Amino acid sequence: MDHHFTEIEGKMAHEPLAHSSTFSDETKDKMEHDSLVYSPRSIARATTTGIPVGDQGVAVLRGPLIVGAGPAGLACAALLTMLYIPYVLLERDVCVASMWHRRTYRRLCLHLPKRYCELPLMHFPRTYPTYPTRQQFLVYLNEYMRAFGIRPFFSLEVVAAEYNGEYWCVRTKDVIPTGTLNGQSGEESIREYRSKWLIVATGENAEPVVPDMPGIHNFKGQVMHSCDYRSGESFQGKKVLVVGCGNSGMEVSLDLANHNVHTSMAVRRSGHVLPREVMGISTFSLSVWLLKFLRVQIVDRILLLLAWFILGDTAQIGIPRPSMGPMELKQVSGKTPVLDVGTIAQIKSGNIKVFPAIRSFQEYGVEFTNGRIESFDVVILATGYKSNVPYWLKENEFFSQQSGFPNKPNEWKGKDGLYAAGFSRRGLLGVSMDATKIAEDIAQSYNNIYKLQRS
Ligand SMILES: Cc1cc2nc3c(=O)[nH]c(=O)nc-3n(C[C@H](O)[C@H](O)[C@H](O)COP(=O)(O)OP(=O)(O)OC[C@H]3O[C@@H](n4cnc5c(N)ncnc54)[C@H](O)[C@@H]3O)c2cc1C
Fold it and tell me: What is the top EC class of this enzyme, as a single word (predicted)?
């Protein structure tokens, strides 16, 4: 299996959006030898149930509808397959995990050790490093799809969903790229799917957040969001300002500095930065373990002491810490601490300059809140992402219309067969936990309904 992963990884490096429609030999072997885990019958079921709806048509589904084919949507699809429940999976892009394919930089690695990032029912290959690369993660997802016969419907964007008392009525916009050579927009057709179960798996990071900053429209240089950043290579010889010091801002800055780009970072708020590892042990694993025995405030004190030993006082280099500790803050607000992979060392050595918040943009530069004016060629906004649920889901009891997240933290189940997969702010670990609970819950009501019909 591991050798097989390496092979696809190579292929995907050249053809990242290609998906083979056949099962790999390794997977077939595994399915034959381990029918409990990979049942060909269940796979056949899952793949034949995605009814494409005719133009202007309405399809009433027997099973659940999943919106979004990122890791959360795929995990739900795999688990439903194993429970013999037919589903339909809709994705707005032309590939699965579009965030990982299209909106991440080339050198990205998983932030957490691989055992916390596996999807249900399938391990990462043993040959993968502790922190798999973005490319390895994509290969894993591709293999996951094949192993469970997951066939999403691509280029179908969900634009509205509403409960009519019996079904979730989900409308999609299908953009067919015709005449793209002339730059014309494609044809659109609207379809409707109806299902008793709606799984929202559109992600916490569905849309980039681009804040309106004073004078930004006067700036004559290039402005881009970090989701469009791929590598520092193309910025060599330029002066680049990265706005934001979350995981993305810190890693983009590091990548730029590693490419010898003249890099600066604007830090508006305080934030926790922790070393990714402490004496070879992942800080995340250590925190999880400590939290089993100790109060969160004590764990925070230990983590901050270790961070101080390893990274020093981050306030002195322009990144002050919040008054609340990292784990408590995560519990209270969902804000994840940054796991440092080398940015702090680059700041200390002067390769990355840190500035305070931006007061205003000028034609060729930026004025910071300390009054300093600096010129820049490029500004990269590492200003985060938001959920897009409020734009299309007509429901406000379970999902907040403001944040696009469930109103109560860690909630995965709403009323009338509505579910949220991947909104617990716990990364891929949370995705797996949600998917498992959702699939089990749907299995119960699905079996009740169809048992009643059969008897
Ligand atoms: C730069 C970066 C690095 C990260 N690294 C890690 C990490 O190392 N470990 C970790 O655990 N987490 C990490 N995360 C968090 C990561 O986003 C999640 O763990 C994971 O991708 C969540 O999967 P998801 O399926 O919930 O959402 P997504 O991966 O965002 O997938 C959602 C899918 O829904 C589709 N979609 C959205 N709206 C619609 C619509 N209206 N109609 C149809 N389809 C739609 C999207 O196109 C997308 O394919 C990272 C996030 C970022 C931004």
Answer: oxidoreductase
